[in-house]
Amino acid sequence: MATFVFFHSFKGYVGDGTIDLDTHAFKMYLSNAAPTAADHDFKADLAAISAAGGYADKTLTCAWTETGAGTGVWRFSIGADQTWTASGAAFDTFRYVIVFDDTVTAPTDDALVGYWDTGGAQNIGDGGSFQANVDADFALFELN
Who is most buried in 20, 34, 96, 139, counting CB within 10 A? Predict the structure, then answer.
């Protein structure tokens, strides 16, 4: 996939403790609403596609870990590839794969983390699949 783009508010929320990389639940969703990193803060700002074809958000297995004992390098990774398969109907058209913090409830629900732009409209027909290629070694970011 393309380069991951962080929402500006995510950086502030990590810094002020609103987002806790150790304990919060993170999810991924598909959207056709064009994100703007400087202007969008919460999932409600960028609607997910409808539930047609059995579409649902994906729960991520995230980790905030030191890359090796005593290295001082910390990595936030979001786990394995995520695959959506349309069943019974086609998915709505989408272009963006968006990550959000599902635990944040204040100042409002579901703080946005960042997104990938797939580069164009994605159409997944009944029985078709889309995979967000995020291998186990993918790190959203590292601090060193």
Answer: 96
Per-residue pLDDT reduced to its tens digit, 97-136: 999 999 998 778 899 999 999 999 999 999 999 999 875 5
Per-residue pLDDT tens over the stretch 53-63: 999 999 999 88
Answer whether 26's CB lies under 8 Å from 104's CB.
no
Domain annotation covers residue 136: no
Q: What is the pTM of this model?
A: 0.91
137 is a domain residue = no
Residue written as tokens 């979001």? 78
